[in-house]
Structure prediction request, 543 residues.
Amino acid sequence: MELNFVSKEGARTSAFATSVTAPSSRDDATLARLGKRPVLKRNFGFMAILGFSCTVLITWEGSLIGFISGLQNGGPSGIIYGYIVVWVGTLSVFATLSELVSMAPTSGGQYHWVSMLAPPSSRKFFGYITGWLEITGWQSLVASGGYVTGTMIQGIILLTHPDYANNMQNWHGTLLFWAVVLLSYGINTAVGSLLAKFEGLFLVIHLLGFFATIFPLALLSEHSDSQAVFDSFLNLGGWQTQGLAFCIGVLGNVFAFLGGDAAIHMSEEIRNAAVVVPRSLLTGLLINGTLGFGMLIATLYCMGDIDAALAENPHYPFMAIFRNATGSTAGAAVMSAIVVVMAFSATTGCLASTSRVYWAFARDRGLPGWRILKKVSPRTSIPIYSVITTAVIAIILSLVNIGDATAFNGVISISTAGLFGSYLVAASLLLYRRVTGGIRVATEDDVLTNTVGSSLTWGPWRLRGALGIANNVFSCIYLVFIFFFSFWPPSLEVTPQTMNYAVLVFGAVILFSMLYYAIWARKVYNGPIIESIPYAGIPSAGI
Prediction:
């Protein structure tokens, strides 16, 4: 069936050539009911976007990378129990986000949902601030991915050539950071369908790499006793109570679950996104959570003398643990290289998702330079200027690392606060709407729904009744908990080296966004723009 639209000016235009298939028409009818024109190619099916979700989340690899944070505040047992708390909390949050993306599968994600859910008097401002939180979190995550990948390459060099410790410089890691970001940029812009194939390949590496790492680690090393793993708590940060140390150390596990919602921002490139995205989010979380928990248990049983591992590699002690466990530098280097490869894959996926957020927010005139950022390449159907902007900003931010690695850590630590802040606003408004009965079941007669000035309807995926309310409440509580502790330093004795600069960066971003809003954005930004409306005379396809 050919789908037709009425533009804002009232002109009736055909949105598709006659060769478009029924599933594509159905997808774009869903997007049209949100008031948006389809301009991106739908290159992702369920397996491709599942691979994308898993290889951005990379939980078993992330649990190794963020290992030291939980060990300092919580100890081995704090890491395990904190992981369970974060896994359950993230599952609840993802279920809430799945309901939202099923209602409005758009690349804008959180800021679009906030705009459609907020009261009319405040939806413009709330949506705008949420958009900036969203962009800040994702841009920081790209910088984090590039930094971690680059410095882990340094870690492998240190593992194989210990004398490199005498010559290691911050600018070495920065140059490697640039190489990672530029290669990710090339993959994102070369061919429209390349990204989907790339992430599908790395899903295989992600799964096989887990077994290639955990088997040598578990079979070749000496094991600690269970009490040292499950009943051993540490408070090296000097906090007043062990419980407070646990709450601060849990952020290391949060890092292992960051970015799992990347598929949401690819929604306009996914076939049957209203159903496929929720399934991929939750399936990816279950797969990654299981693998991450297994790797965490194995690492804690096999870590041996952690002080010696920290002395050998203070930033990534898991590499030293691999070498001590296997007794082979070459074997440890190969195992570590798997983690590096997957960190690069995650950076590539984060770059893609971040660019889609830039593009969507620019499409709705929420960013400076929106006329350029919203343009899409006619050859690849990729928002090329948004991809370039994401890469360039990441590279500019990396310059801070040359002068002071501590300051740069403050820049990248904002990812948790930015993303969780945007989740919290959206989840809270969904809870408000569902308890007040503001969302109804969708019907075939709906023309424009789930956008500014229209009615709210449930998507095909949701948690019904009391279960949905209970999960929504729990997700909000968990988000408040993580958002609050994301600004805390790792130790009670605060120095310039241990200061958590996230609060400073977060405040600067909020201040800039509000100034830009007061000076200019309030004149041009009115929330999600209604670009087109399905032609009332043509039956629209069902969700």
Observations:
- Residues 221 and 325 are 4 Å apart (CA to CA).
